[in-house]
Amino acid sequence: MKLKTGDGAKGGKAVPDINLIFKIAGVGILISVLNMVLKQAGKEEQAQMLTLVGVIVVLFMVIQLIQRLFTEVRAVFGL
Amino acid sequence: MEILPFLGMTLITVVLLNLLRRDAPEMAVMLSIGAGVIIFLRLVGRLTELVAAFNYLALRAKIDHLHLQTVLRVMGVAYLAGFGAQICRDAGESSLGIKLELAGKIIILFLAVPIMVAIMEMILRLL
Question: How far is B74 from chain A (nearest CA, A)?
Answer without folding.
Answer: 8
